[in-house]
């Protein structure tokens, strides 16, 4: 999945799949936080500007807020995280997608 369609910003990875921009925690963020115990996720349909608070994560070492890497509307949220928070503790960061954006200016993504 590496290449020009995968970028990282604010300890989040962003993958453009040709339709939406999927977002998840990087391995670095996972390691820094330790075991994640809770995540406060946005709701589908919410709109964010780049830099606004997007996700709050509680872990053994700290509570961290992650800023939105893009401006756009949340098109989907990984509801499985609410059932099994260990998804965010997965060693493979690409398995731990959190949400996806639609209505993103492609230029904003390219400038990351």
Verbal overview:
- This protein has 112 residues and is mainly beta.
- The protein has a single domain, classed as RNA polymerase II/Efflux pump adaptor protein, barrel-sandwich hybrid domain (OB fold (Dihydrolipoamide Acetyltransferase, E2P)), CATH 2.40.50.
- It contains three helices and nine strands.
- It has helices at residues 27-33, 80-83, 106-110; strands at residues 6-9, 12-16, 21-25, 36-40, 47-48, 53-59, 63-67, 72-77, 97-102.
- A six-stranded antiparallel sheet has the order 1-2-3-9-8-5.
- The longest helix has 7 residues, at 27-33.
- The protein is globular, with a radius of gyration of 13 Å.
- The protein starts with 5 loop residues before the first strand and ends with a helix.
- The mean pLDDT is 92.
Characteristics of this structure?
single chain, 112 residues, mainly beta, OB fold (Dihydrolipoamide Acetyltransferase, E2P), 6-stranded antiparallel β-sheet, 3-stranded antiparallel β-sheet, 3 helices, 14% helix, globular
Question: What would a concise description of this structure say?
Answer:
By secondary structure, the protein is mostly beta strands.
Topology readout:
Elements: E1 6-9, E2 12-16, E3 21-25, H1 27-33, E4 36-40, E5 47-48, E6 53-59, E7 63-67, E8 72-77, H2 80-83, E9 97-102, H3 106-110
Antiparallel strand pairs: 1-2, 2-3, 3-9, 4-6, 5-8, 6-7, 8-9
Structural class: mainly beta
Outline, from the CA principal axes?
A: globular
CATH topology: OB fold (Dihydrolipoamide Acetyltransferase, E2P)
Give me the strand/helix succession: EEEHEEEEEHEH
Major sheet: 6 strands, antiparallel
